[in-house]
Amino acid sequence: MKLKRCRLRDLGISIGKFPTGPKNSITDIAGVKVGHSTIIKGTGKQGTRKGAVRTGVTAILPNSGNEYTQSLKAGGFVLNGAGEVSGLTHIIEWGIIETPILLTNTLSVGSCAESAVKYMVQKYPELGNRHDVVIPIVGECDDSWLNDIAGTHVTYKNVVEAIETANTDLVEEGSVGGGTGMICCDFKAGIGSSSRVVKIGNDSYTVGILVMCNFGEMEDLRLDGYPIGRKLCSKFKEYQRRRENYGSIIAVLGTDAPLTVHQLNRLSKRVGLGIGRVGSYAANGSGEIILSFSTANKIERFGDSVYYSFKALHDRHIDPFYLAAIEATEEAIWNSLTTTDSMHGASEHFVPAVPLDEIKKHEV
Amino acid sequence: MKLKRCRLRDLGISIGKFPTGPKNSITDIAGVKVGHSTIIKGTGKQGTRKGAVRTGVTAILPNSGNEYTQSLKAGGFVLNGAGEVSGLTHIIEWGIIETPILLTNTLSVGSCAESAVKYMVQKYPELGNRHDVVIPIVGECDDSWLNDIAGTHVTYKNVVEAIETANTDLVEEGSVGGGTGMICCDFKAGIGSSSRVVKIGNDSYTVGILVMCNFGEMEDLRLDGYPIGRKLCSKFKEYQRRRENYGSIIAVLGTDAPLTVHQLNRLSKRVGLGIGRVGSYAANGSGEIILSFSTANKIERFGDSVYYSFKALHDRHIDPFYLAAIEATEEAIWNSLTTTDSMHGASEHFVPAVPLDEIKKHEV
Amino acid sequence: MKLKRCRLRDLGISIGKFPTGPKNSITDIAGVKVGHSTIIKGTGKQGTRKGAVRTGVTAILPNSGNEYTQSLKAGGFVLNGAGEVSGLTHIIEWGIIETPILLTNTLSVGSCAESAVKYMVQKYPELGNRHDVVIPIVGECDDSWLNDIAGTHVTYKNVVEAIETANTDLVEEGSVGGGTGMICCDFKAGIGSSSRVVKIGNDSYTVGILVMCNFGEMEDLRLDGYPIGRKLCSKFKEYQRRRENYGSIIAVLGTDAPLTVHQLNRLSKRVGLGIGRVGSYAANGSGEIILSFSTANKIERFGDSVYYSFKALHDRHIDPFYLAAIEATEEAIWNSLTTTDSMHGASEHFVPAVPLDEIKKHEV
Amino acid sequence: MKLKRCRLRDLGISIGKFPTGPKNSITDIAGVKVGHSTIIKGTGKQGTRKGAVRTGVTAILPNSGNEYTQSLKAGGFVLNGAGEVSGLTHIIEWGIIETPILLTNTLSVGSCAESAVKYMVQKYPELGNRHDVVIPIVGECDDSWLNDIAGTHVTYKNVVEAIETANTDLVEEGSVGGGTGMICCDFKAGIGSSSRVVKIGNDSYTVGILVMCNFGEMEDLRLDGYPIGRKLCSKFKEYQRRRENYGSIIAVLGTDAPLTVHQLNRLSKRVGLGIGRVGSYAANGSGEIILSFSTANKIERFGDSVYYSFKALHDRHIDPFYLAAIEATEEAIWNSLTTTDSMHGASEHFVPAVPLDEIKKHEV
Description:
- The structure is a homotetramer.
- By secondary structure, chain A is α+β, with helices and mostly antiparallel strands.
- Chain A is about 25% helix and about 30% strand.
- Chain A has one domain: L-amino peptidase D-ALA esterase/amidase.
- At the A-B interface, strand 3, strand 4, helix 1, helix 2 and helix 3 of A face strand 3, strand 4, helix 1, helix 2 and helix 3 of B.
């Protein structure tokens, strides 16, 4: 019997020891919204602007769309940098996020950045009038195995759709938005999310992860450590895989815990460890880039205040967040795999969905 | 008598002890081409899409436009990162440059990146057919004081023009290309270039710098160390300056010396010291980002070879390159100032040219 | 029946897909020597200079002890930096190793560095005569749970012993040298090593790892992904563990593959992923620091040559090294666990050996 | 008439626009203490343990010697890393300073680190009893041109003297402590300090710098930008200079402004710009390493609190601190030059003091 596509936990499998948030999604963090614009058309012989389009854009609004006027503390880490997150240099320098975060395919980064500028100029006329500027955040993975990437099909319309439909619901996962044409360990993947609740004394905080997941080779795939990829390899022997394109992953971590920029940078590294646990060795051609933000301690863009007061977690209490970030990352990646169906795409390529019965069989 | 705008050396002033290349320009390095597309229109009352357009794009082709098929070793350094060079993460990770380098205004980075993708897809159909991708390199400074930046006037046409008119002549300097609307230490600036020849044993190598120069405050401006800005302040007391926007500088260093990626990263830091010597303190709002490449030891994109043989300079001989990079950076910045005229722009802003007679008067 | 302490493979368990070198040890790389000096005395009530001494020093000679006259290309990565590798800044800057690598306890870093200076001054009188200097490399983990660390028992004699007894045999593992008093995931650990052979075309290269292993919590321990720590926790419920001291790990990677400094830096990150796979989340208090060197392309200290030619591996062939580094790291950590017996130490602390029958039972 | 050695301002020369603190010294910051132990003996033919000893150790106590129980926020930057600051990795990771900062010669780093451990173990018995550890901070420059460095003459006694005599007076400058045998731009140098007062609204903050100064070549020396080294070169033509040893500089910045770790890291870079302005090109062999700390927002080592609240300066007000740091760095370096006399040392080397009359003549 074929199981209906679902999230990992719906198969009875959970990863780690921390409880999830109510939605087990990055949107468990108050104020975080996510939206997608998905483009699927054509049947996929080949060639630029002729073949299958399997792409899109995902928008994460860390502060409900108010990032420009009220920025969030932010950090990041590059595990392997054969990829792009436009705006990363700025995030690292100032330690803040002041625009939505967009995720798309490699060759549409420019289009999304331009669109984000146009959108923000329209939304905030002061951008033009005050001689102010912003640097949009646009992350990418390479969906060229399934998508006519050279056709650069993501346009202003898609960016606006992703931003304006963003909401606080459980994040739609799988082959949607920027993740539409993505592949993980030779299985169809895309967007995935997960969250964890960390208790520190009497306080509860949420750590949420959203990934656009596109990395890896089948034999390396691991489920909570279990090397399930080795088994799956025999089942999928005939299957034609992408070669010389290992893929990438962009991961976004959000939390409502009061972390400093310095702590967010450090926390971002642990997301890298989570990616490693699912089977990534951060291949030469991989862009494994992590962004992190905290919704506590918001920073006003305008105003004259000289100081701000900041509540911060002592480092001696940060370890649970490290573990929670690893767990949520693993589960978010798996959710990007289990929620989606197989896909036919460009150049007549086919990418199978990960077989749920095999997953379910494995009980750790 | 008003002096005709010219390069710093035409005023009888030279910086440093190394001789320049024949053109005293980054194009002294064999294979390096530079082109501009300049957009000047409107008289500049204000507001988005209504005011003065004073912007453009500059293209640097480090390997004569063959960067995609034959990449160059590259590195970089972020002195202050409140700016953007799209593709920087990739350069740092792989240590190569595989696309042209584009320089433009802050809000046109996306447009230029998208245009570069379209241009390269057309030039290299394998990009679509081989499921290959590239990440364009686009650096920016904020020209919003003079330019209707929110109008995002740089389009595909401009990018193609900059790339296709690129040549090996002395680089056109001042208010051209990406530098059209730029300001340095409250004076009109833009693109500048300079080069130095370093002799190591019997071999001569060239270090060339190109800057898009947009940083600083008048009182901090220095000429070969001499604090000329303090004097100029009294002359320009009435003059209305930009505030809360310190500006930025993107610097590109090229050399034909056989340097490794590791050495190029280190060399990039010295460009930062050169910027500091002209008066930058790398302000909070400044994007002072440096890229470096070597035209020796080219890397073929396609092919099966497992190894390559690399000739490299011993570190014990690298110091002259450090000094040469500092000198050329200082002079490139000054060339961006002395070559351009004053400009009227958006919001009826006016930016004066640096007074050449004052410069000439100063003999170090 | 109690199994005799042995290496992981002697239990029938191997990690990963690459074959090991003949010794499955970092000494499989030609020219790499390792020696230990182990200090065990006292029965361990407590207090400075009164209690149990369970410590020592391990010396790795990457170039057979000729590191000063003939340096090796080197790199590194800090996964979490609550630890110390003296000399790391220099390694990262110059990309070379020019002294032995010493591993010891946290409070003996100074003593070892001083001893290494004295040893080298005696061995190379030119150090004094030529006005030359060196910066010794000394890594540490905190063995204070079992060792009277504040007594600073490691002296010049121990450093010389470790260096002078260094040899190319299979590395002695477990509670020896710098690893004498170390603990991993609440089990007795110490020094471990492993190697992998990577074939690139017709060439074979070795990747070897040596760890001084001192990190983690029992419940997180994993064996080739399998979360064995969760099971072991129930068996060791009563057992008193160290708290507020998560520990650390120093890992040294060597290879004879012709890698550049840039590639060694990148490779070092993958060792971090291997550490993560065994269960580390790189805790706040952990010093997870990785050094890497290549024995190909040696650099002469003295001489006038301006250039050197080196053979380098194309990045497109580097992925197997990434995987091999992860595998060897996991196995080296496990070898540090399975080879050692339980230990009683300072403050009457007891640390059990990992139970081999439980390990053996688990067949992945 | 020969001028008496004095500080730069005593010659009528000041650098920059910010006022100094009352002592124009890092000790203007409340709670910062500095002490020296100076070792001068022997007349200096040559050879290990036979020649001239011209060395010592300088101790900076950022929190009056209470660093262990009450740590300070800290950061750093490596401009060029051919040098050592033991403990730097830890400072960067945790963003705190929890031990005194010691400055000495290259080959005495180990001895100082060991001595600091012994000193702290004695002062804080809990270090042994609580299984706690510390990683001492020891920076170095190479004084081998004048000092019998291979003799490693700095001992426990010297470290204790430097720490215990530390006080809040104007820092003793020139050839004292760690700076005893140091050289800057071929002139005798050593320890220098300077401070600046920055007003933000109604609040005044102090930025203080202390340098151990040992870098550069005469022709590059600059005084407030003015290339005085070029002139001095002709006067000192005959003079035998050190070669193949460019030297180094360790700079320590303190401030009472409420800066975050992230801000302190960024501020540290500007100290590098200040070093560059005096003439450093951060040579290949140079260790130009900067540490920064803030005495605001102290962190208790022991206790159970989960959070701490801190007051932080908005980034938009940080620029004056950048400028002040550059100014103070320049002046601190100059104070290390003008305050000291000439010195004869090892191998019959002679290093002249910078001629004060030439300095005074120059009025910027």
